[in-house]
Protein 1
Amino acid sequence: MDIAAANTRAARAFVRGLIEAGVTDVCISPGSRSTPLTVAFAEQRAVRPWLHLDERSSAFFALGLARAKGQPVALVCTSGTAAANYLPAVVEANLSRVPLVVCTTDRPPRLRDNGAPQAIDQVKLYGTQVRWAADLPLPTNETADESRFAGYAERAVRAALGVLPGPVHMNLPFDEPLLGAPGEHPAPVAVAPAVAALSRPGVAPAAADVRAVARRLGLARWPIIIAGPETGGLPAEPIARLSAELNAPIFADPLSGLRTGPHDRSRVCDSYDALVRDVAAVSLVPGAIVRFGGPPTSKALNQYVARFPTATHIVVDLPGSYRDPLALNTQRLEGDPGLVADALAAELAGLEPAAGLAEAWMTVDARARAAMQSASAAFTEPFEGRVFVELQRALPPGATIFASNSMPVRDLDSFVVSDPKPLTFVSNRGANGIDGVTSSALGHAAAGGGPVALVIGDIAFYHDLNGLWAAKRHGLDLTIVLVNNNGGGIFHYLPQAAHDGLFEEWFGTPPDLDFRPVVEMYGGRFTLADDWATFAKGLDAARAGGLHVLELRTDRARNVAMHREAWAAAADAAWRAEAVAAP
Amino acid sequence: MDIAAANTRAARAFVRGLIEAGVTDVCISPGSRSTPLTVAFAEQRAVRPWLHLDERSSAFFALGLARAKGQPVALVCTSGTAAANYLPAVVEANLSRVPLVVCTTDRPPRLRDNGAPQAIDQVKLYGTQVRWAADLPLPTNETADESRFAGYAERAVRAALGVLPGPVHMNLPFDEPLLGAPGEHPAPVAVAPAVAALSRPGVAPAAADVRAVARRLGLARWPIIIAGPETGGLPAEPIARLSAELNAPIFADPLSGLRTGPHDRSRVCDSYDALVRDVAAVSLVPGAIVRFGGPPTSKALNQYVARFPTATHIVVDLPGSYRDPLALNTQRLEGDPGLVADALAAELAGLEPAAGLAEAWMTVDARARAAMQSASAAFTEPFEGRVFVELQRALPPGATIFASNSMPVRDLDSFVVSDPKPLTFVSNRGANGIDGVTSSALGHAAAGGGPVALVIGDIAFYHDLNGLWAAKRHGLDLTIVLVNNNGGGIFHYLPQAAHDGLFEEWFGTPPDLDFRPVVEMYGGRFTLADDWATFAKGLDAARAGGLHVLELRTDRARNVAMHREAWAAAADAAWRAEAVAAP
């Protein structure tokens, strides 16, 4: 058998299958074993290959790109630890439901587990983190390989896009010679881009379940809706319609996509995190809590919800995943959130909802929002929360704010307000890691859907410095607001902050780095913003495109104090300035 | 139950168990869930805690440290993707048999798989890559926890040091509150360092097997010994004695530890890689091939061995691991290499071995070595192979040369000669990855066993730039020879090099980076060596300590040509200059 020809035929069929299923992007890292696949991708114009030298960053880039595009992105690497470097992003893709087709290449079976170089056990390497894992057969160079390998590709895309989207793992063994000499390498046949990409099938809720939940909601005094984080955003119009039918406030996490945009936001509550920290909030007793999306970013809101164990808790989610850590839900409604919201709204149409609760929440919400924004504006020294106020004001419609985990995503939640200007808010909230954040944001930017601003702390920025290489290599546009408090700001909110002798070394953990040289090494422009005027000017300059890092130096301890001040001001304004009529 | 007290008690017992089993070092990354363990480690003086901000680098640092010390090193991280970042180093530790006690901390079981923040499926996260994986119970604050958690720690160390050393995975769930307030946190009790660290039990070969193999060896005309790579090095004296009994040449991979040092090297062959590339080498037919350690680094030597399928192939290895990718071995001998070599030598004592083969090999070896060294010296332009000639000359006895994968380890093999000055040669040859190399070398340096020089290419250097942070944070001494050929030099040896249209973009993959700023950001000194005089001066300057990066810019295509020239010169000198009497 002509092994090189067999490899080429199988790899081309596999790539054709991916393209025909709608894959338009692949992230490739250099290596030898992956040669057949890399070449098969590089030969096609219908798929864009993105080169990455660090597989960890590559996978996070693919994650960001797939999330922004709402379609699967492929990954290709060589055998060995290269594949192991994908695991962090695979975990994130699993939990945040982002479709990835992870293609690891491998030694043929006879060279496994017997000391062959660069051979590790790649079969089911990602364990429970993937929707489907297949160890493909060796190419045979028979005609059947054409449909066989294209078929694996189609199955991979369908599995990644399935009822519950996520990563799939294709392990592709190739024998040597991996590639024929130029004269023997057949000319590639161009594959046309997919006329219609595969798309996810919808999951319609069971009619009986919808009726049962609608009945409960109709009976409940004062339901509230929580719109939690969801990859790609929740369907704004259907949920807004449901909230109208119920006259229910929507506690809209920024990652739900419901906080800004043209939909009906008359019941969208944005300052609940400050509101529910105050004991007064329990006076507005919800009789039913309907949650779309994952548990909200706000720890305070999660704790608030847990204060009402006897309320009717309804969790709307896709089959195959239970996101209810507090085990509160009395009824689960399985289906696509848009279909569920529409079905519930239809069932409830004509109901005369109780007045009062939504109005009360909107009153206190407006007061809290105003107080938070004034507090933020009053802090003339660098205040981490104000970064989001400035960004929401400065960014054009359609722009994206990507918030790193740890503090930025919490500040996003606290300081971004309900607003007609549509902005997209994104964060890696599957596993909440601080790894791969820059690469994820660059992947998002690579999708070309408008300007992207990443807000990130110094430890997360250090963790994925390698990610910046892609900005240079691929000429990407990204504004990074580097909130540099020299260490782990979030730990100041935890009990260990009181342990003076241990805290700074093991939790504060200052990196003590001046990031300017490394940003410049990757071709980025670096601006140190000492005040808000410089910050605004820096944001303005970033519009020119390319990689721009705008560093804001903050003080961890002061930042905690300013946050507490802002929350206290918001609670005072909301609950104590003037009584709210509890319905 | 006082949960904080329970956490403290269990974590302290676990740390005590590790210390009493001989663990002296732990690599810790910051996080919240890991607080009880981090604090328990930080409170003890008998164990040195190394802070790392990037878990991937942390695990490779631990690997390097554990390999250098020959004893298990512990790792601690928080829950979530932090744990996933350990996988690449866990894979390497598995295959290169380095003992690691990987401690991931986790949410309590009730908060798993239900959408709780920063909770991923960590149970058996490393799959088949670890010797033992345990999901520990939640602390109970009962007295039994003292011996229970210390017991888990002891088992972990024993499993990591077992018959086949390697990584183990302890997943430790902790509930909140993770830590008591300072006033309620009990004062730590100092744990004394282990009087006697646990050590690996030896595996003695079965006497019948030894007799059978000795009989075969005694009958075989002209046996040869291959000393392949082995973590910690192979036992030099016993293998040298066996070679004397058999009058067998030892083809000594630098990673076997047999190429330099005070042992009998009169039959140590160092230039086999150049020799066996020539067809003339088949004239010296080996009747038996005994291999200690893993398959040799030299691809040419592996191919050479495969040319004699009818010879007696004996593989000496530990139980539980088969390192014989060519499936050649006719007899496997299980046991510790020192015990096996001693037993075989004893069995063969008094045998009058056939003269001739060793002498012939040593003759051609001396000629090839001289030719390789002259060729290297004759290249006045930067030649990658010469780096090792210069290092072997300049480094003091007891120093370590750490070779990255891809080209450096092959040049190490080709250019380091048999020599009485003892040097240690190290490389990550389990999975042969180019990831984590800098961190592994820094971990080796942290063991304090003499100066360490790392030779690394630009792509591998880029891959683990984050590793440099540890050099700054912990004030480590490391000389890095950065062989910068702006891309993947090894691919020039592969068939794809002929594909002009694809090669440079997908295999050459130039990073186009000037590394000076990032080295300086991490507090290192950076020297660009244009010629060998500057290079030597740079090596000299590096003796002052700290992090020193000495960059040598080379040309990938020229480098291939120079290598081919050197190999041809060596083969000519060895095989054609003067006939060797084939025995």
Protein 2
Amino acid sequence: MNAPTKLEDAFHQLIHQNHLWGLWEIASQMTPHPRPEAIAHQWKWSVLEQVVKQSATAVPVGDERRAMQLFNPGLNGQWATTNTLIAAVQVLLPGEIARAHRHTPAAIRFIMQGNGAYTAVEGEKVVMHEGDLVLTPSWQWHDHGNETQETVVWMDGLDVPLTKALNCIFFQMHDARRAEESKPVNGSKALYGHGHLAPTWVKERPRFSPLMLYSFDQTMEALHALREREGSPYEGIALEYTHPQTGGPVMPTMSCRIQLLRRGEKLKARRVTGSSVFHVVQGQGRTLIDGKPFEWAKGDIIALPSWALHEHANTGPGEAILFSISDRPVIEALGFYREATS
Amino acid sequence: MNAPTKLEDAFHQLIHQNHLWGLWEIASQMTPHPRPEAIAHQWKWSVLEQVVKQSATAVPVGDERRAMQLFNPGLNGQWATTNTLIAAVQVLLPGEIARAHRHTPAAIRFIMQGNGAYTAVEGEKVVMHEGDLVLTPSWQWHDHGNETQETVVWMDGLDVPLTKALNCIFFQMHDARRAEESKPVNGSKALYGHGHLAPTWVKERPRFSPLMLYSFDQTMEALHALREREGSPYEGIALEYTHPQTGGPVMPTMSCRIQLLRRGEKLKARRVTGSSVFHVVQGQGRTLIDGKPFEWAKGDIIALPSWALHEHANTGPGEAILFSISDRPVIEALGFYREATS
Amino acid sequence: MNAPTKLEDAFHQLIHQNHLWGLWEIASQMTPHPRPEAIAHQWKWSVLEQVVKQSATAVPVGDERRAMQLFNPGLNGQWATTNTLIAAVQVLLPGEIARAHRHTPAAIRFIMQGNGAYTAVEGEKVVMHEGDLVLTPSWQWHDHGNETQETVVWMDGLDVPLTKALNCIFFQMHDARRAEESKPVNGSKALYGHGHLAPTWVKERPRFSPLMLYSFDQTMEALHALREREGSPYEGIALEYTHPQTGGPVMPTMSCRIQLLRRGEKLKARRVTGSSVFHVVQGQGRTLIDGKPFEWAKGDIIALPSWALHEHANTGPGEAILFSISDRPVIEALGFYREATS
Amino acid sequence: MNAPTKLEDAFHQLIHQNHLWGLWEIASQMTPHPRPEAIAHQWKWSVLEQVVKQSATAVPVGDERRAMQLFNPGLNGQWATTNTLIAAVQVLLPGEIARAHRHTPAAIRFIMQGNGAYTAVEGEKVVMHEGDLVLTPSWQWHDHGNETQETVVWMDGLDVPLTKALNCIFFQMHDARRAEESKPVNGSKALYGHGHLAPTWVKERPRFSPLMLYSFDQTMEALHALREREGSPYEGIALEYTHPQTGGPVMPTMSCRIQLLRRGEKLKARRVTGSSVFHVVQGQGRTLIDGKPFEWAKGDIIALPSWALHEHANTGPGEAILFSISDRPVIEALGFYREATS
């Protein structure tokens, strides 16, 4: 390109001062494929464990939660683990309550340590055990409480960066520390948690799953019933948690998955549009992300950006299990889903 | 109305000979509400049991099934238990095979007696136990076999009258006595039968449920988890078996339901558009249908026509459980669903 | 098959007296493919015209309509043109009103003769011209009136046999001769009739099309815009009238189509599940149905049963246009659609 | 809050160096309601016109387009008119061609000046006139050409910021300057542009509207047919351009609307989640946005951020017409839609 003429210069000055910009000045942002600012990153359990322990004494649960947010190093201090998702590690000590509030960002909890604490969701007390998935969908009142004698730790997953990018964040603090219990304990599990049988007298059809608790025992049952199957060459025995009334994702903005890698299993590489956060539930392995190896073990959390080529391998002595959240439902609803194997 | 004039007579003669008929001649068929020709009718287990026993020696399984079809007394010898549904009681002796075939009418089996026989559905052997619901959806190859030492009895439910009314019956006999087994035994249960978790590598999205076996133990678990709930004033603790990929009915033409009536429970009267066939799984009770009482006990089968006012009561010493099939998905898909309480 | 034994005889007697029938006695009803009782039949305009003329003096409009119903000769006097559809030719003289009523069977009108009469549908007066399609969906109040100086003739199409087979007929006579006009004349056309533009303030999403009038001028415009296209080898330039809010059929139970056969065009043979009624809007041609030729011209009406092999040819000097109704949406919603070319 | 203790300090240091951040440090980002960084902003036609004129000589069409992008002053130089949308004013001189390319961001064009130029979309040449809406959906090849004697100007609208936030941008330059014409000129209008009539032989069901051209004459016809209606108290006679096969928005990521304000009409205030860009097609008026008045006239473009309270008034001597794009389909698909009137 030649040096700009005076005419060109004057023109650019005119447009810039009027908040206009030439396409030719910015067209390089139309990249041949996604180039996320978020990077692949791993939070090791060895570090998280230390943080969990110190957090107990260092910071109070306060009006907020004792939740350590995983900031993606590529995102310049944004509240984001990937472009659309935020993950956190949350700690609740015996006797503590995390005050009731609600917000439009949807949340999930995957229980990492401890049994018997609860999340109350829109009036339903949901008792949590290790490996359980608990939902707190968009704009549902929720508080957390630990009436047990042990510290409870879970991974939070929320769609905060997405909700923020859409300028749709609403937040409300509850008047009371705990919202009123208006439903039976684990009541949604009674309604939806036993096979494919739907209560005919329930008329509500929310966008989010009305089942708040996906118990780990059922998850393991499902994985093990399929452990001899071929599964996906890219994901192994990968199951999506589903909305009982639609068969679709548990939330319109987040998909939750559980994935079994058999002993010695080495999956094939693939890239997909959309980002994920993985949590190692069991076992150990190695994930290559755009050529960089991430050695993982129980408790680790890994951020996987959009379109990163990734391949998982189980390198441990037993089965490995990965839980993950992703923005796949958004990507698919808007017609942006793609995959490639190189 | 006055006596017809000559002109009128001539006109009617003209139109009738040309296969035309005046609306005024037939308008009474536009009834204020449905007036089914099918009637409410009960087949007592005491009779069915005798029939089952005698059938073993009286008729061979042959190329057809040893299936005794429940003909509604109001339907003049039509192959129909209600206007849209046919139910039957089928008997398979030890060592017998009911030859493989397929047809567009969809079928369900609800196991009444015996454990361990199988229905093979499109290559999947499904092992059946008492209280199980087994699907053989439209146009899926299926054969039945009894490799156990005991006689097996089940209730068949099909949408034959509907399929026939729509002029959509196709039938094909398999070349072989048994279709080839191409899938793991109870394989669809492994894929879909454990909680709300969907195998991500399966891309098929059939109109019918891909889960062929709804086990009785899960059904009972679900019913009992809800036995303290209020449920429906008309149906009690009534659950619909659902399609895991849609949350909807198991077939586009039939809904299957299971219903718990607690001890002493007396439900309210209601009428709905669409017809059903009930089977008593457990307990005893009384159903009033358009004022006529039907006293029922385990094993009975009852036909309930469209728009009949019906109310169920548990009159026995324990819980009562009713299984039923209905044409509700058709009625709803076409916009004809209505209900009334008197 | 050998002669029945005494045991067999006794068994059959037992089951029959208990309203049971052996599958082996009736299995021949599971036919390899549909065998409709309805036959292909043609009502010639030369006959219909004579009937229309005589009807004016022979029968009053009364509380009913002066509607001559096309009875399929194969259906033994049932109120049915095919297994699911009834067509009729209706005549309204200057000054007449056909009293307001509503019924669950849905109806369409295709205007054959006369301009300026109206059908009032749920408070909207719809003014009708030749070639227009007018809807009166399920359970919508409707009356017809002719304030012009000429006799008006149209073809009615209803899903009466289907609604009856489903035991879902409801009918109600209006207290008044004419239901109250509560909406602008042709108001739904103003809302939905100009391009693909939807009024954002309307929240209703009925199952049936909210557009009551599909004007012939638009239909012709659409056909002619496509007259150089290849179209379908079986149907030519065939367009389906659509529900503006879904893009699907105008009613859940009936599809309406318009079809252009270019000069000299000879379409290929096909059979489909589901039945239709054709009306010749313009031109002349020949349709072979299961090998039998039907020569048709403007004004004729032809019943086409399910699974009949049919091929259309334009044999006239100009373009031919066929309007038709079918039960296709039912067939598709229930998963029964099939086609074959021989 | 008290001053942090040493323990707290050490803890924060630990977590920050490990890319963790306390929720208590950032919770203020969970705002009670959306607080967009984008601001309401107006680009006056008087300025745009000058830019359009100068652009003709100052910059070539090159391999890119001569498209001046409207940068929201609140968004710090991001390529964005609102958080999710980018609008631009594009100029094509007689004889010019804007080279063929495709990208995952979807685009619309609303023609501001000039008649007879074209956009070729996936093989279909679409001829454009003032007031027309032309689609170039996600990943469809498109080039623009001006074979007329006059300069053509249009408004572009794209979902670039959204696609970027989702890390889903793909872009590809075509090998040839112009993609091959494989379809009839304005062919999609022939297929879908005449009333609610769908070609039965077309099997494709894209997520985006298959109708590429929404002609202004139809738009005006629709608006004028409704000009006596009440319409919406917040939007007046507001129509959404729809996907002919679904009745929904033209793209999964963008809604296009046209809106008539009658003479003297003053609409009520409302805020909604989601952002829009308005373009004044005709007339003049005033829009109050969060209390700030924007006086507008033909040709102006206005950015409206999420949740901004806005009210439109027609202050001119005749009817006013506003065209707008918004991210409403995204907001609704993800369950984030809300509105409030204060």
Protein 3
Amino acid sequence: MTTITPASAVALPPTTDAELEQLLSAAHTAAAPLAAFRPAERAGLLDAVADALDAAAGKLIPEAERETRLPGARLRGELKRTTFQLRLFGEVLRDGGYLDARIDHADAEWPMGAPRPDLRRLRVPLGPVVVFAASNFPFAFSVAGGDTASALAAGSPVLLKAHSGHPGLSRLSAEVVTSALRKAGAPDGTFALIAGTAAGAEALSDPRVKAGAFTGSIPGGRALFEIANSRPEPIPFFGELGSNNPAFVTEAAARERGAEIAQGFVSSFTMGAGQFCTKPGTLFVPVGYGMVEALREAALPPAAPLLNERIQSGYTDTLTNLQSNPRITTLAQGTGPLADPPGPTLLLTTAADMLAEPHALQTECFGPAAVVVTYDDEVHLPDLAETFEGQLTATIHGTDSCQVAALVKVLARKAGRVVWNQWPTGVSVTHAQQHGGPYPATTAVGSTSVGTAAIERFLRPVAYQGFPQHLLPEVLREDNPLRVPRLVDGRKGN
Amino acid sequence: MTTITPASAVALPPTTDAELEQLLSAAHTAAAPLAAFRPAERAGLLDAVADALDAAAGKLIPEAERETRLPGARLRGELKRTTFQLRLFGEVLRDGGYLDARIDHADAEWPMGAPRPDLRRLRVPLGPVVVFAASNFPFAFSVAGGDTASALAAGSPVLLKAHSGHPGLSRLSAEVVTSALRKAGAPDGTFALIAGTAAGAEALSDPRVKAGAFTGSIPGGRALFEIANSRPEPIPFFGELGSNNPAFVTEAAARERGAEIAQGFVSSFTMGAGQFCTKPGTLFVPVGYGMVEALREAALPPAAPLLNERIQSGYTDTLTNLQSNPRITTLAQGTGPLADPPGPTLLLTTAADMLAEPHALQTECFGPAAVVVTYDDEVHLPDLAETFEGQLTATIHGTDSCQVAALVKVLARKAGRVVWNQWPTGVSVTHAQQHGGPYPATTAVGSTSVGTAAIERFLRPVAYQGFPQHLLPEVLREDNPLRVPRLVDGRKGN
């Protein structure tokens, strides 16, 4: 689990046991005062972090370019997404609906057979969270990314385990976050950076930590999931692990706009050099509609560098392994498909082969490669969809007919997000977004790591029974001083 | 993990591998058609089950009395609670708010830096659930209890692992449920009874099963939790395991109404012969206010039989062990405290002893025993509260002053439900109820197993991106034909 950092990057010194103890203690101490902030006050903390990151762009972007080999335009867009996300969670806090506040007044006639006491319920923060940063989005899924934003929004202090792929950027980002939080009045210990695999595992094992969040590989995520579950007090672990993101082209769609779909697919699977967790890794196309030919002739983008040497070598290993499978041929390749940087590769197989050996042919290949699967009759698409494990996304390119209803049903069972006539890459941060899915897409099928619902991961419900007004949290007082949406006696209201 | 069934009961034959395979296959097949029911249609199924159980009371109650040794009045009340609960989930379905439906319309100007696609999200059922029944509530936490009701409401088929403590009642109840579901038009395989520890574990391991729910002991629940997590595809496991449910009496409350509190405590810890998961197992009282004396003199109820021989022997073992602790003395005892049936027992210790050896002194003793802890100064109550692990409930008896705010804060962090001047036994089924808490109260800190929010355990979100209206689930169509509450572009609306 050691990542070789880019030549240009200087690894962070691993957090020592003594440092970790101090940081865990500070996070534990910060939990109560951070939880005591009114939601709208905590929104101010998130805004302050967003503003500080925007103001530091001139320092952060060059460091990110140097360490991740990603282009500046992409990185600037990603930073914008990151600060937007922080501010959007601020709006969620100001609205207050995320608290799921519920009030049931005492009711002597409650038809259960016994009087109903006065019961009032809201969601409260879990406590300190360890967030494991990802390498492929050095802003949006790293130090100040979605997991950090949603945990801080929930009111949980964050220990951020830096990804070794961008150590300098991690350190700079953490300085910006920590300084902004301090200036905005957050308790000391609200946020801290830690480094090293051992420190990350140690933090996740510590009784003061109450949840973990992770974006990365299946083996790494599964190992951390097991640590979280085998503690004396098991804690929730929200891991986003792996996804193939299959896409299906119907016969009618291939006939109507096969060439356009082919080009769209190429753009999507090579976006960010194929290093998106939503990269479509498999494309099902009908034989006889010219799509295989269109894909063979499609203009592949030039080679682009992968994030770091570990990803480069993992990519070439996985690709070599796929190409050695007798069920697979190579459909198209850019220049130097196994070089650094690698040109894109499109592989080819058949539906029969996919049915025969789905697990091997659906291996996630992190980088600019994908597998095209030809099928004879679209009536088999639902069965082909059934061969997939849990997915972050599944995509259909079809026409506006009802033919694909059965396929949609299977895919909605397999994936967290089903996409119609668009591509899964580019995960918008919205209220209705769902970035999750059955294992191995995530370790927590009920959760999302993108979108406003991501805050729910770091909350737990508490009910107050029979309490006098002044001892209740403000959110649950009769006069609703914070004006949050509430469910009162089973009905929406304030 | 073998339970000795009562002498009067005939054990169910363990489900064979062949039978289990047939039942798993049927549950798997039922999942899609059950999920396809409109919520209000599924409410009809729950109503039908409730009506059938009410109609079968004349058969069910005598069998329950025979097998559980619980009094008829208590059992009739519990059956009423059970059918009320089924109908309340019907109301939840008819309301539709549980779907958490969200619509974000496409927005080219979405300030994230990239256009927002049309995204629509709702919650869908997880798929087949294995429910492990409890012994102490042969209706409300057994065959047709809260886990079954909430899973069926969610749209997930249920495999119900019968508790060996009431085999005849389990069989009868399952016949009523199965027959009512069939008559109401539920798919075959929506509900089935299985028997035997091995079959339960086997079912939980099966890839067709998508969640588990359990109410019972810490060792049993933890073992099942590990099975659920170590599957190739880990699944959510909602276990309610153990809780001490401490109660704290402030000095002012002791002065004002110590005798009344003492009598209330005795009623609560002996309710149902102390076999409630919310039984207050520890009571903190101030020295010098006559409460120890009041408790010593309190009228203890007569001995009442425990549910079965295993619980009887577990109770006497735990009680004997507690009494052998040099930090503990016996404050009051009924007749035959170690006999079958056992008279109630009140033990006594001090705050200093509790601080010295909290784990041993907080052992859950399932049956009519509790520990009274004397303290010198109520300023120490928050520290005493800190010694507890996660709890289902925590109770304060205080006066209407602000002195106890610090104690409330600690208890809200430790417990799922905090109770003021009432007792935790008797868990009302309502919208705002929370029956859960940090481990070991539950294995899933974000969940509740009682109250309408229990349905959320068996759902997962799915987002649809860019879909034409006719391919969307009805709940997400623009015209909202089912009139469910929705969050549209971040605002409440339809």
